[in-house]
Amino acid sequence: METDWPVIAARFALYLALGGLFGLSAFGLYGLKAGERASAFALRLWLVGLGLLGLLLSAIALALLAAAMAGTPLWPIDREAIGMLLSGSTIGTAWKARVIALIVASVAALMAAGRTPLLGVVVIASAIAVATLAWTGHGAMDEGAKGWTHLLADILHLLAAGAWVGALLGLILLVARPDRRADTAHLTLTHRALHGFGLIGTIVVGTLIVTGLVNTWLLVGLGNLPKLAASLYGQLLLAKLVLFGAMLVLASLNRYRLTPALKHAMPGGDQRGALSALRRSLGIEALCAITILALVAWLGTLEPPMSAM
Questions:
Q1: Are 80 and 118 in contact (CB under 8 A)?
Q2: Can the peptide bond before residue 76 be classed as cis, meaning omega within 30 degrees of 0?
Q3: pLDDT band at 14 (very low <50, low <70, confident <90, very high)
Q4: Phi, psi of 141 (to 5 degrees)
Q5: Backbone torsion region of residue 144, taken as left when φ is above 0, otherwise alpha when ψ lies between -120 and 50, otherwise beta
Q6: What is the pLDDT of residue 164?
Q7: I need a labelling partner for 268 at 20 to 30 A (CA). Which of 103, 108, 168, 295 fits?
Q8: What are phi and psi of 120, to 5 degrees?
Q9: pTM (2 d.p.)
Q10: Domains of the chain by residue range
Q11: Residue 1's CB: how many other CB atoms inside 10 A?
Q12: Could you give the 3-state DSSP secondary structure of residue 75?
């Protein structure tokens, strides 16, 4: 089977943009107070930008998928194939729901200006947009009770991943402020946001582990686990698990060592050194997350071992 790199790239970009939109808007809601959302970093600009980027990427992904399914070149665009995909499939229904959700999220983000109710609308709308991605993956291939279980696990997995990616983006934007502009108020806000992500992060990790186990059971099967390394699908899945483990180690380091170190440095200690250590750790964690999303985008185009039996 030939690897369809444009489709993989579009899937990866969508995961990153929509996950970032959902996770960053949620981070703005639980991690920042209303009066801090404009001063901490350009939250509204980021949310509007990610919402519009999601719309653009959705259009590109639809054209790529229609061309791949019809066996036609991407250009000129096959409008008939796109029309059939939109009107005669659950993927088309999910795509239309995503577009509506992204329009709502983008408009609400533009009007929010730190207001909690409108930011809540962005969170809900972007969560719907993320959830629609489940219909473009393996979660939509089963029927009946198994199909709904798989789809629900996929949706929760996507939302948890988005929450983590968006929170990482928010935390990186906080610690990336130049040292000369990082006054005591900003450092206090940054420490509180880092510390506050602890509980949310625990829920996110728990959700990822449980839904990941469900998906692995449904897609791979217990009998195929010893043979994972023999297939490309298994190799990518194992690489994803290794990177996830690295993210857990880095998240623990941030929570139990680097965040307390920032608090101890704030009264007049080595604030620059504490921030530098956090920047490195969060940067590596974000790189792991981005690589995982790329692997997931690739995995979604491959045939799972169980279905190949």
A1: no
A2: yes
A3: very high
A4: -90, -15
A5: left
A6: 95
A7: 168
A8: -65, -35
A9: 0.90
A10: 1-136, 142-309
A11: 7
A12: coil
Residue 306 confidence (pLDDT): 63
Judged against a pLDDT cut of 50, whether residue 33 lies above it is answered with yes
Which range has the worst mean pLDDT, 153-167, 263-277, 279-293? 263-277
Contact, 165 vs 17, CB < 8 A?
no
- Identity of residue 141: M
Taking each helix axis from N to C terminus, what angle separates 90-112 and 79-87, rounded to the nearest 10 degrees? 90
- Cα→Cα distances 31→28, 116, 117, 168, Å: 5, 12, 15, 12
* Tokens read off for 31: 């991690």
Tokens at 265, concatenated = 């440095």
pLDDT value at residue 308: 45
**Residue 195 CB-density burial (10 A; 0-12 exposed, 13-18 middle, 19+ buried):** middle
Q: CA 160 to CA 174: how far, in whole Å?
A: 21
Q: Smallest Cα–Cα separation from 65: which of 56, 53, 74, 76?
A: 74
- Structure tokens belonging to residue 91: 């993927």
Task: Identify whether the C-beta of residue 39 lies closer than 8 Å to the C-beta of residue 113.
Answer: no
For the segment 265-292, the average pLDDT, to the nearest whole number, is: 88
Distance of CA 40 to the CA centre of its chain: 22
